[in-house]
Every structure is written in C-alpha cells, then in structure tokens.
Design goal:
This protein is of the alpha+beta class. It has 20 helices and 22 strands.
Length: 641
C-alpha cells in the first residue's frame, strides 16, 4: 500500500482567478498558440471592434500603425467606446471594456440597446484579452468634444480614465505593446497584417483601411478600399485567367436588419474549385451552412438552365462537382447570433442560414442565367465537358488503384526508404536527378531519412486535369511513397513521413522543379502545405577553402560578401552548380544533418495570393509571366542560367 498523503485539501486550496488573471495564467485558452499566429490574433481582436462600428454604420476609416518600438496602434473614426460611468460597476465604459472578459457592445441585445446586432471577432475574447497580454496599453477615446485617456500595464490601469485634451473628432485609438513574457515572438509580420486588412476591405466595401510600418530603415505604407467589395476580390483571384463572364456575377440579399448576404461568382478555364465562405468577416475554411446552401442552389439552377435550353435531357443530371469546376466564388453572410462548431469559428453551424442562402442564390443567380442565354449555354456545355472529364478521371483512379498507386503498400522501386516506421520521426527528401539521388542515398541517416529521386521535371498540373496527372510516373511515385492519397481522398493519418523536403539544385532549373512540385502539392495535397509538412532544403552556394582553415560553406551571396570583407589574402572559392557536385559527406554536413542544416517550411499564409501566383507563373498566359519577370527583374542581382 502506498503511503497515505496528508490531506490538506480544503476550501483554502481553491484559487479564484480574478479580472484578467485567467488570461495571463492560461493565454492559450483565449488566443490559441502563443506563437506568431497568437500574436496577430491580438491585432485582429482590436480591429474587429472597429469593424463592428463600421458594420453599425458609424465608421468608415481604420488605421493600423506599427511604431519603431514595435507597438501596434489601431485607430478608427467611430463613435468611441463609451466614456461615461457604468452604474453597475462604478467605472468608466472604457475601463469596463478593457478589464472585463464579458463586457462589450456585443452583449447589449442589438441596436435598440445601443449594442451591436451583427458583430465580428475571431475568438470573441475582445480587447480586454489584448490588454491582459500587453505590457503597456494606451486607450484614447475622442468623444463629446474631449480626448479621454487611460494607460494600462499587464491589464492593470495606472489611474482612472481622464480627459487630456479637446477635439471635434470621434473615435477610438488602442495602442498596445505585447508582453514578451507571454509570446514566443512580439515581432509583427507586415505581410500577415497586409493580408488581413486587404481581406477585410474586400468584405466591407467602401471601408478604408491603412497600414503603416515605421520599423527599420525603410517605412512601408498600404491603403485598401474597394468600392466593388467582393467583386474586386474575385477579379484579383482570377487575374491572369481566361474567364467566362465579362464581369463577376454579383448579387446581395437583405432580410430584416440581421441577415445580409453578398455573393460574387466567376468561372475561369482552370480545373480548380475555389469558393470562399465568410460569416461576419471571418473565413470558414471548413465551410458550414452558408456553403452548403450555396452549393445546393448552384447545382439546381445550372441543371434547370440546361434543361430549359434543351442541352440536358430530362433524365440527365450534372453533379455538384461538375458545376463547380473552374468556379471562383465568394459567399459572405452577416448575421446575428452566429453559431459555430468551435471557438476558432472555422465552420458555421447556424441552421437557418442554409435556407436563406439557398433561396437567394436560386432566385438571383437563376434570374441572371435566364437573362443571359449565350453565357448560360457556354457554362452548361463546360459543365458537361467537366462531367466527361470526371468520368475519365474516375476511370484513371480506378486503373491506378487497380495497379496499386493510390492504396497499395507496395512502394516505388526508386524509393530508398528509412528503417523507422514511425511517421512522426521520419522525413523524405524529394531529390532532383539520379546523380544527386545517389549521393543523398549514400549520405543520409538510413534510420529516419528516405530518398525519392525524380527523373526530369514533373508534369505541370496547373494545365491538366487529374486523369492526365495520374499518368505521370513521377507523380505516381510520390503519391505511393507518401501514402496519404490526394484531393478528396487525402488522409493525413496515413502520411508516412512528417517532413517532405524538396532538395533541388540552386539554379534556374532547380527553382523550376521546386515550383512544379509545390504546384502539385498545392492543387492535389494542399493539407500537406497548410499543416506544415512541406519544406525546402537550403544547399550551400559556395565552399571556401584556405590554408590553416577548415572548409567553410556559404549559403548566399550576402554571406560571401561578409566573408570577403572579414578575410584578407587569396583563398579558394568553389561555386556549387548542383547537388551532384558534392560528395556524400559534404551533402550530409551542409544539407541533411538535422544538427546543422537549414530548412525553410513552406506555408500558405495568404491562400488567395498563393493561388494567383501559381496561376500566373504556371498557367496558360505567357504574356503575364513575361510582365511579372520584367517587373521583378530589378530584384535579381545575379542570374545563374
């Protein structure tokens, strides 16, 4: 029997966290991971307060500024957080909003109570959570002819809200500096914020959002304002693609003052389906009832149109996949009391939204198709072509499955697998060419590193349908080696390697092969990229040798310049043209040894921009590629052809 522990567990053992203490004690419960993503969640929460003012019709400009010391300032021209004393709490409305997790205009019961009927917010934790996780927060509210100011440190106010000046303006300014003890990093990423503001401006037409960054030697500024809203969104996504309609089909539906829908639809000559569902300015990557309603309506109206034009027979029916090939669409709803599957709001669950969206799309898009018979005929014919191609793709899948490509445990002969079978510990190098593949096989650690050499450049999947892709030997080898399937059959639990590392030569051909591989991953195995399984190896560009000095490897031209500046005399410099020039020891030491190598994780922070770039660089319009090269040529100091 184990020794009995003295029982000191009583009422005094219980700890009640007060005010904002729970946030600082367990920040992950409120903002998710305390990495860069969690850091930017703070900015989103503050901006969402200003967006709520815009949705209510009181704000048309939001300015976001990153100061030289890394402080983030969000300023709007709305009504301002209430500055009067709250009767129940005995403190100002500003202090109540900044120190109470359950206080705010979102709980007021709609416009009659002065609160917000429709509100944004990613996690819904509000600006009080931002206050708790900032070492300093300064709130300034312009209201009733005065400037009101209050300073906080880690959520604790220095003193009550006080008047510090006079003004005729109205609005709120929140300046906060994240607490470095709470986050892995407190460095705001300009591109991440730029992506956020651009997306919010698409979803709130006419709203002006500015971003300014005063860190470093060079200031950066961007302004976003799209009068066309989601139509502009669609045009940006489809830039560089051949489209069916001259302009995106746009319509909106308003039901009372608590249900609003915006839809923009455009078809292009690609084979990908891209539908972006939003609710209350938040994207739902897992879809939900608004997406379900849209898809059901789309299938119905196109089938009805095909039969009305006598293109489809009575018993013919296009599937949802058939009518969505090549579509780009935005479905944005703004609703009261939105219900979500989880705190991250990745899936909308409000049941009434399905019927609301479905009815509106059938009515509005159905009317458009009736009024544009020529475009409708072309659309239906394209859907029929997609159906035939899908049949061919199904037969190709069945053939490849019969041959063991998609599900067989028989691995490709060219694969040099690792001995460990635990996926979380294993990695696979996708290597360009047999020569580099042979060196990598000899230099690897066989316990956890697998090598798959590719012969030549894989197929550009941006230009072909899936049945053509499945005929490519290199693509079939990767699908079999990874073990997780593709597209709708993708299953991360079957992935045989935690890290998929692209290792190509540091030249133009190597870059092209890397882009071809990333295009394949993005189009057919996108969760690999989204969940951080894809990496690019960074082989050295130079080897420096000198008497009395151990060989030194340099990975870019900047490192070479620094070496030259710090080392006088003659030394021997070798420029690596390809991985095959290294012996197995050199390749291991520089590129494959986990203790010394550098890997770049590939992510998709901005899926819209990533999609546009893949279409531009890998699509059917060479003149756009030429334009891109000409515009960016000045960024290249040395071209290795």
């Amino acid at each position: 029997m184990p020794e009995k522990i003295v029982n000191n567990y009583d009422a005094n053992s219980l700890k009640a966290l007060k005010g904002l203490e729970p946030v600082r004690e367990h920040p992950g419960m409120y903002i998710g991971p305390t990495d860069e993503k969690g850091l930017h969640c703070l900015v989103r929460e503050v901006i969402d307060n200003s967006i709520d003012e815009a949705l209510a019709g009181f704000c048309d400009t939001i300015n976001v500024t990153i100061t030289a010391d890394g402080t983030c300032i969000v300023k709007d021209n709305g009504r301002g957080i209430p500055t009067g004393i709250n009767k129940e709490e005995g403190i100002s409305g500003v202090e109540l909003a900044l120190t109470n997790l359950n206080a705010g205009g979102k709980f007021g019961g709609g416009n009659k109570a002065g609160g917000y009927k429709i509100s944004s917010g990613l996690h819904g934790v509000g600006v009080s959570c931002v206050n708790a996780l900032s070492d300093t927060l300064i709130a300034e509210v312009c209201q009733n002819g005065h400037i009101h100011r209050q300073v906080y440190h880690c959520g604790v106010p220095e003193e009550p809200l006080k008047i510090v000046g006079d003004t005729e303006e109205t609005g709120t300014s929140i300046a906060f500096h994240p607490d470095a003890t709470m986050f892995e990093t407190i460095e705001f990423n300009y591109e991440t914020l730029k992506t956020l503001l651009r997306e919010l401006s698409y979803l709130n037409k006419g709203l002006t959002l500015t971003l300014s960054d005063y860190r470093g030697e060079k200031e950066r500024h961007d302004t976003f304002c799209y009068e066309g809203g989601v139509v502009h969104f669609i045009n940006d996504i489809n830039k560089g693609k051949n489209t069916l309609f001259e302009e995106p089909v746009y319509f909106e539906e308003n039901e009372g003052d608590d249900k609003f829908l915006e839809v923009a639809i455009q078809y292009n000559d690609g084979y990908q389906e891209q539908i972006f569902p939003f609710s209350n300015n938040i994207r739902q990557p897992d879809g939900g009832t608004h997406l379900d309603g849209f898809k059901a309506a789309l299938t119905k109206v196109i089938n009805d149109a095909g039969k009305r034009l006598n293109i489809l027979k009575e018993n013919d029916k296009l599937s949802g996949e058939d009518v969505r090939e090549g579509i780009t669409a935005v479905v944005s709803v703004k609703i009261a009391d939105a219900q979500y599957e989880s705190q991250t709001k990745s899936k909308l669950c409000s049941t009434y939204v399905r019927g609301f969206v479905q009815k509106a799309v059938i009515d509005k898009f159905g009317t458009y198709l009736e009024e544009h018979p020529a475009q409708t005929r072309e659309l239906v014919m394209r859907c029929i072509t997609a159906q035939r191609a899908r049949d061919a793709a199904r037969m190709a899948r069945e053939e490849t499955r019969r041959k063991g490509v998609l599900e067989s445990t028989k691995l490709p002969g060219k694969l040099a697998d690792c001995s460990d079978k635990r996926p979380e510990l294993c990695e696979i190098y996708i290597v360009e060419g047999d020569s580099a593949g042979g060196t990598a096989k000899q230099g690897r650690d066989r316990r956890f590193q697998a090598i798959l050499p590719l012969r030549g450049k894989i197929l550009n999947v941006e230009k072909v349908r899936i049945h053509r892709a499945l005929e490519n030997e290199e693509i079939k080898a990767m699908i079999t080696a990874f073990g997780c399937g593709i597209q709708e059959n993708f299953d991360e639990s079957k992935l045989r390697y935690d890290r998929i590392i692209i290792m190509t030569d540091a030249d133009v051909d190597g870059s092209h092969i890397r882009i071809l591989l990333l295009t394949f991953f993005f189009r057919y195995m996108r969760p690999l990229v989204e969940k951080g399984h894809v990496y690019a190896a960074q082989p050295p560009l130079y080897k420096v040798s000198a008497k009395g000095m151990k060989d030194l490897y340099l990975y870019d031209d900047k490192a070479l310049e620094e070496f030259r500046a710090n080392h006088q005399g003659k030394f021997e410099l070798q420029r690596y043209k390809g991985l095959g020039e290294m012996n197995k020891e050199q390749l291991w030491e520089t590129t494959m040894d986990p203790a010394q190598r550098t890997l770049v994780r590939i992510n998709v922070q901005d899926a819209v921009e990533a999609d546009r770039m893949f279409a531009l660089l890998m699509g059917e319009q060479p003149e756009l590629r030429r334009q891109f090269i000409e515009e960016n040529a000045k960024l290249v100091d040395e071209l290795d052809v």
